Amino acid sequence: MKYKYLLIAFITLTIFTYGCFKDNPIETISDMGDSEELLVYFETHGDFINSTKAPAFVTAANVNSNLSKYYIIDIRESSDFSKGHVEGAKNVLMKDLLAHIKSIDTSKFEKIVLVSATGQSAAYSASLLRLGGYEKVYSMQWGMSAWHLDFSSKWYNSIRNAKFVGRFDFYSTPKPNFSSMPKLATGKVQTLDKIESRINILLNEGFSKALVDIDTVMKDYDKTKEIIDYFVVCYAPARLYNIRDNGHPPGTVRYEQRIDLKSSTYLQTLPPNKKIAVYDDNGEIAAYLVAYLRMLGYDAKSIYLGAMGMFGNDQLLSTRIIRLKSSDIMNYTYVTGG
Questions:
Q1: 241 is in which domain, residue-wise?
Q2: pTM above 0.90, yes or no
Q3: Beta bridge partners of 234
Q4: Nearest in space to 212 (alpha carbons), one of 312, 308, 310, 304
Q5: Is residue 62 part of a domain?
Q6: Secondary structure of the chain: what % helix, strand, coil (to 5)?
Q7: pLDDT (tens digit per residue) in 171-204
Q8: Residue 99 lies in a domain
């Protein structure tokens, strides 16, 4: 608790002293670890994840209207890319993203748009690059599922029946007590080198390391204690926390988007030594947050397709959940091959 408030005071003083901090190095508390140092940097350099710039979405319609102005990167596997992609898109795997971004003259394009199958892995990758200072990077919402009906099965076939509703509950679990930040050692000296190192590590790991299925979250459910091994975060408005008759996984804690996960609020109520599973409506906003938390050293994962991946078939007619609707599928032309 004491260290938490010391960190808050330090960040507040840093903001007051340097303003926006662009291109300014930061000073650190002598015993500050890498996790705390990265937190200070992010919060004093725009605080992307807690700002109105996040999530950095563009729609399929917007991309289609600006094909000559945008640089499009499709991060799916080459086999999926060859079956159909946006004309002009470059196929770049996640592990090569940072090097590829560095190799192009981003000033020539209004936006750099990342595209994936459902939008979740593109959101995760875009968040990492944004944290690295690449402010022109966006993810295409819903991914190729919104580009054409031919690709939407990837999304629709993955939504679930409410298999675990009998194990879900409606209790409002309070946030835990404050704790320390995760232990993180990058082996780097300069803050920007630490950030780049973390981005490269996380991109090389791939999105699979940052993704979890609701089956996995619930498989160790203790019927007697009605608890699970994961610390589950509902990163969404209150409407999603106890939606309709579905509820949420036992022990789920709700954190308000852009408000509750700052150093000055409740970031340090997240457990530093426990697996964290985050969900929102459909997984994309959660993926943006998970990228940030993993940069700081938390073992955070985004639940596949969010609430739609948990009990989507029960909610297909609901207006209380944000989901891919038929009107979102644009049926634009696409090209095949490499």
A1: 165-314
A2: yes
A3: 254, 279
A4: 304
A5: no
A6: 40, 10, 50
A7: 999 999 999 999 999 999 999 999 999 999 999 9
A8: no
